[in-house]
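Possible regression after last week's pipeline update?

I re-ran a chain I had predicted before the update to compare outputs. Posting the input and the new output here so someone can diff against the archived version. Not blocking, just want to make sure nothing changed silently.
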Amino acid sequence: MSKRIMVDMSATLIHHGHIRLLKKAAEYGAVIVGLTSDDEILSKKGYQPELSFCYRKEVLESIRYVAEVVATPWLIDDRVLEKHKIDLLVHGHDNSNLIDKTKLLTFPRTEGVSSTDVRQSAMRSITQINNQKLMLTPGPAVVLHENLENLKPLFGRGDDEYSSMSESVMEWIKILSGQDKIIMQQGSSTLALELAAHSFVKGKVLIVSTGYYSDRLNRLLPKGCKVTICDYENINEIADQFDWVLCAYTETSTAFKVDLQAIKNIANSVGALLYVDATGSIGLEDNHHLADVMAFSSCKGLFGLTGASFIAHKANLSPQPSQLFYFNMETQENKMVTGPYHAVASLYGVMKNHGELRQRVINSKERVMKNWSNLTRDEKNQPLLCTYIEGKVNPLDKDIVLYSPRSELTGSVICHFGEIHSNEVKIDTRIEIIAC
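New output (post-update):
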């Protein structure tokens, strides 16, 4: 008479590890699967299984190595074995069932696969499906599975998990910024830029003009500043003394990157501190340490979700006091209002893969520069985030969103975040450029 071999499992998501275990068990006798109920999975694992008990049972019964499927509790004991006349219990090496050891046979788990791994793969597949639309915009152009894997209930006080996430993210961003201090708040980079301007900038101000976003800095300044606006190509003609020099490192509206070292040299020569709009450059470009104050957001070169913005500055600078409550760096630094909890969680997921994601931006940039080299600028002022094309972008399928820059241009701006969810660059097969 064939021995009766029980394999206990939840089988919430059947994978090849389960099949291999069942195959091994079948070498010892007739396999009886002890299948955990829906309620027990919910109680012990904290979630409702993807397939209910009856469907999991149906799937298992269709496997040739399985003779029978019976309902069993989460933990198998000798009474369960006696009830079903089981000779041996087969389990992975992580067995925690309290049974007579002479009736237990364990095998190593199949490496590289688990139900959790399958769920992560499913999340990656879902995000890839949702990212079929090609966004040629500055961001967020995709939603990454790394953005989603840590989204859960989070809170800024008394939540140790969030505190750990937040500390890691803030330290990472501080290193990227090259600054001594950093604060975050809920909102766009515009909020951070205006708050930073009102907290630090005063006196005579020189704004280096490269397009819409540099020029709008004038509107974000506190009252009383004496402002001079100078086109980027004329900065070497500046001779007056200033208290602050302001610039946008990457000017998204014109796809133009300033030479930040040259700007810093100018600031030093006119006796000024340097304020940088790093919205389009953080996480992508180098030399952010040259700034004295900078501001940026979570959803461009940091590859996070929208909702978090940051101000970073040198330790020798102290923000000016404010009578306002919300629009106040002290309020934000002391976390006296709701913070960008889920944007921070999305960045926590990105941190470990940020280098790979940045390289995908570079790959897209290089593909565009190679295919339309006759329509692009030279490399001197090329930002990684975007490329200016002296031509009109014509989409070749309906799932493409073009970027409409806020500056008036004869050509077009293409941003390079739209394919960072994949190693494959297809941008040149999905658009064509019609020269102006």
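Follow-up from reviewer: compared with the archived run. The chain has a mean pLDDT of 95. Marking as no regression found.
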